[in-house]
Design goal:
- The two termini are 20 Å apart.
- The protein contains 7 helices and 13 strands.
- The longest helix is centred in the C-terminal third of the chain and has 21 residues, at 230-250.
- Helices cover 28% and strands 22% of the residues.
- The mean pLDDT is 94.
- It has 257 residues and is an alpha/beta fold.
Length: 257
């Protein structure tokens, strides 16, 4: 029986019942399993470098950078803290900034969601709006009040760049996506390509320009009921296919006895 491709999922560092914990919400893990992938939760500690990170990531077939209620520390992109920016996860910051270049060097398929999208931008030298709703001309991209289904319902239109990485997965020029974020890209990192935009011009999807394989990140949450949304489904299908290809290439070749 062929094993499922292994996908590392970055954890968030939280306090649970008075103790430090490394955790991932179920929606990300369930989405990966629904598309034939096997998620592995990766704990986060400060101090990781290529020497320690590369052997870990080399055992995987993909990497998922999830969303979170925390934000990338603004000092990492040279900014002062805005009053609206109140929640950090410095352990996760350190892990993500080490893992992104290591994953790219290994040719590992990478999918970033929400915070993961912002981490990819910062890893490439970009900066973030810490409170998009305070920027003149920008929409309020924060989640709506109410039940979870209303929060994750499509909230605004998305314009997809023709001929790009995202359009190769989903050929329609437009879609509608959910919106549950306060932060967003201010300056796009060098070496990244904007793949989609919201009506106010905010970048909503990016790819690594020169990456040969699947390296895509989105500002919205495609892990929420992806089978019910053609764009979300296309993203997870594309990621799963890339992880499967990686697993087949990396699998050892059996030699005759």
């Amino acid at each position: 029986m062929q094993s499922r491709p292994l996908v590392g999922v970055i954890a968030c560092r939280r306090e649970v019942e008075g103790h430090p914990a490394h955790m991932v919400t179920d929606k990300y893990l369930s989405a990966l399993r629904d598309y034939g992938l096997e998620p592995v939760i990766l704990p986060v500690w400060e101090g990781g470098d290529a020497a320690t990170v590369t052997p870990l990531l080399s055992r995987l077939d993909g990497l998922l950078l999830t969303g979170s209620y925390t934000n990338v520390e603004p000092a990492r992109y040279g900014a002062e803290r805005a009053p609206e920016n109140t929640r950090d996860d410095r352990h996760r910051d350190a892990a993500a900034m080490a893992w992104v270049p290591a994953a790219l060097d290994l040719g590992l398929p990478l999918l970033g969601i929400c915070r993961g999208f912002q981490e990819l931008n910062v890893a490439f030298g970009g900066s973030l709006h810490q409170a998009v709703q305070t920027v003149p001309g920008m929409l309020d991209h924060r989640e709506r009040a109410g039940e979870r289904a209303a929060q994750y319902a499509p909230a605004h239109e998305l314009s997809i760049r023709p001929g790009g990485r995202l359009s190769a997965l989903y050929p329609e020029p437009r879609s509608r996506v959910n919106s549950l974020h306060q932060q967003g890209i201010d300056r796009l990192g060098e070496g990244l390509t904007a793949e989609a935009q919201a009506p106010d011009g905010l970048v909503e999807a990016i790819s690594v320009t020169d990456a040969p394989g699947f390296t895509l990140a989105v500002q919205w949450h495609p892990e929420w009921q992806p089978r019910e949304h053609p764009l979300y489904d296309a993203i997870f299908r594309g990621f799963a296919e890339a992880c499967g290809d990686h697993a087949r290439v990396a699998a050892p070749v059996a030699t005759p006895a």
